[in-house]
Amino acid sequence: MRTISSEIGIFVADLTLATLPAAVVEKARTCLLNAYGMGLNGYDTPYAAVARQAALAMAGEISDGATLLGDGRRTTVAGACLANSALFHGRAQEDTCGAAHFGTILIPMLTALIETRRYPLDRLIPALVAGYEAGGLLEAALAGETTPRGFRSTATYGAIAAAAAAARLIGLDATTTGAAVAIAGSFTGGLLQSFADGTDEWRYQPGMVAQSGLTAAELARAGAVAAPFALEGKAGLARGFAGVALPEGLSARLGQDWATLRVMFKPFPVCAFNQTPVTGALKLREELGAEVPRAVRVRMNPYETGYAGMDATGPFYSVSSTLMSIPFCIATTLLHGVPTMQHMTTYDDPAVAALIERITLVADPSVPVLSAIIEADVAQGTRIHEQRMTPADYAYDRATLATMLRRIGAEQNLPMTVFERLEAFVDRLPIGDIGEVLAAFALMPDPRAAAAAQ
Length: 454
Hints:
It is a single chain. By secondary structure, the protein is an alpha+beta fold. Helices cover 54% and strands 7% of the residues. The chain has helices spanning 4-13, 22-41, 47-59, 77-88, 103-117, 124-146, 153-170, 174-187, 193-197, 201-222, 237-242, 275-288, 302-305, 319-322, 326-336, 341-344, 350-356, 398-411, 417-428, 435-442, 447-453, and strands at residues 66-67, 74-75, 295-300, 359-363, 371-378, 381-388. The chain folds into 2 domains: 4-262, CATH 1.10.4100.10; 272-393, CATH 3.30.1330.120. Strand 5 and strand 6 (381-388) form a beta hairpin.
């Protein structure tokens, strides 16, 4: 019986370094570098510390367990997934596949599994690609329906991505991999409300999702019987979360329309949907010089303007609110230039608040996704800047990304040796040892010691 989950299982089980296109392998290397690098650059964000405390409270320390990156203690793989995913999510500069941040789910999970179970390193890239492809296939097909309903793509499709990645790393056959994907479909879910409320749950979703996907893979390996129509059935994922049927011939896209190649990276510590508005605001700022607009109108696609938290105007009390808010990101960029973490965590800037009051967000279906039209009223009239971008504009090559990571690392006062180690590890794959990654994270400043010294 051929179902979507069984077709994904067949595709995933056949993935090897030798069969993957060179461009896909290179993109996977870039995804690894971004995830590890942004994890290092987010060492002083508070979310990993919270997740570490929770993980250790639940599972305790384990001498031969998975390393809590940036901390050094070890715990279960599940606990490491929770804590390390929060670390990789700390700056909100993780990779993006559509509206899903699969790298924050997959890379901490695969790292912990390779460290503890000693899987061959030549499985890392195929397993990572398996996750992007399985999750990306469904995200591209259904996110247009699930997002407006309040479901976060990272969580809605992440468990399936994690199950596929774990199955490939473990070495499950096609039938068992398909069962893992189907089981993960029953574990899926995750809401967007935390963005609207400016709270932190979204930081911890990737780790929980990774746990669900890994559990699905292990259940399948143990012989759990999976619903064959978990994804396309009357009560399956597509109809349950999106209210629609899966497109005909969806599985034919596997190996043809590579989701991995659609993965984007974030130059700024803001929501993926705010990258283009910030880019446009920076260019408009150059045109305006020191002049502050009397009024600003921002036209964007309704898919983006309708996303939870995007229309927030304050008051702001958390970076979870500011990084989502289009008005905040536009205002702070027009006034201060390239947004930094300091800008994004300054909640009481009176000039930013005053400009936000003069910014109007317009949902315009004629504006493509990842584009923005900014109209600024100034003394000489109205200046209009149209910023049209596509995923290709954010699909940085590895050299460009390495430069960006080092720039942020310099702002964070990180030693450049940490990036040298990561770059060398990624470049040598599949030769090497996951211990090289752990050693790079061991060079991070200890935020606990810094806090104690203050």
